Amino acid sequence: MSINHLGLLGLVAIALLTIVLWLGRRWREQQYDLRGKTILITGGSRGLGLVMARQLVAAGARLAICARDEAELERAKTELVQQGGEILTLICDVTHQTQVEQMVQQVNEHFGAIDILINNAGTDIVGPLENLTMQDYDDLMQLHFWAPLYTTQAVLPGMRDRRAGRIVNISSVGGKVASPHMVAYCASKFALTGLSAGLHIELAQAGIVVTTVCPGLIYTGVNDHALFKGQRSKEYTWFSISESLPIISASPEKVARTAIAGMRRGAAEVVVPLPILLMARFYGLFPGFMTSLLSWGSRLLPGPIAGGEKRAFGRDSHSLWAPSWLTYLSDRAARRNNELPVQEPKSAPEAEPVGSREQ
């Protein structure tokens, strides 16, 4: 047989294997029916959490969504009920274990057992290392590590008794690849990624599947709710424009679909979109080279300033370039996904500790 024939057979074999694997994934996803399932989503009132809620309602699930802001929750509930969903909203600061336990009890009393937990609540603190404080690290660890652990511990007894349940932890590519000017954020997401992977390994024998979702940049419209330090307007500008770049940034609808599909087939990890998956794999193979590139890239970002430790919300950090046509995708998403700032408690002139802000 000629070399050309062998090469052709190899290509055919690869194509067939790809098709078989794809069909297998689709079959596993279809085997897990979401109709009638009770799902708790933290940070479900806006952004990615709200987009996932829309898709889960369309699939026939019953939803409990929590957040700190009552008005945001009511707007989200109104939309989801109009979509035909059975919705329970709860005001909860997920960084407080007692509140989390009370919330889970309320969901159990209203709907019965929680079949799926989606830990989505999160926020960004963006700024140079020199302007970060210990409070920044503590707040993000509370929100991105301890809060998912609190909710997980609260739902585990029921899932263990039934020997069934699914948990989805929305981490980040920042939990796999460190990013400049997001050190506290990345540290907390690395912790969540490790926690989630460990839970997947140990809970499998109890019939519970844990999926870690690591998206890259998403244009959810969260920019005005994120927190900025240092040269805040400049930090807001690069962050906002980056989150609106086509190809590099993904739509929340795509991330939500991919995350839900991964949960349904029982995937251990989902990294989305494809360029981010490739970057994460490349980092795993060549960490020294990637960190060198990122180190050079950090030199292009705004430097620290005296007094830059003070936090400001994105809505108070606008610049000539952001918002602008360069941030169109994110600005449009803000209007769609309940992200537009309104005159409510979050409009305080100074940014308070993070609490359970949603991503």
From TrEMBL:
<dbReference type="Pfam" id="PF00106">
    <property type="entry name" value="adh_short"/>
</dbReference>
<dbReference type="InterPro" id="IPR002347">
    <property type="entry name" value="SDR_fam"/>
</dbReference>
<feature type="transmembrane region" description="Helical">
    <location>
        <begin position="6"/>
        <end position="24"/>
    </location>
</feature>
<comment type="similarity">
    <text>Belongs to the short-chain dehydrogenases/reductases (SDR) family.</text>
</comment>
<keyword id="KW-0560">Oxidoreductase</keyword>
<feature type="region of interest" description="Disordered">
    <location>
        <begin position="337"/>
        <end position="359"/>
    </location>
</feature>
<dbReference type="InterPro" id="IPR057326">
    <property type="entry name" value="KR_dom"/>
</dbReference>
<keyword id="KW-0472">Membrane</keyword>
<dbReference type="InterPro" id="IPR020904">
    <property type="entry name" value="Sc_DH/Rdtase_CS"/>
</dbReference>
<feature type="domain" description="Ketoreductase">
    <location>
        <begin position="37"/>
        <end position="216"/>
    </location>
</feature>
<keyword id="KW-0812">Transmembrane</keyword>
<protein>
    <submittedName>
        <fullName>SDR family NAD(P)-dependent oxidoreductase</fullName>
    </submittedName>
</protein>
<dbReference type="InterPro" id="IPR036291">
    <property type="entry name" value="NAD(P)-bd_dom_sf"/>
</dbReference>
<keyword id="KW-1133">Transmembrane helix</keyword>
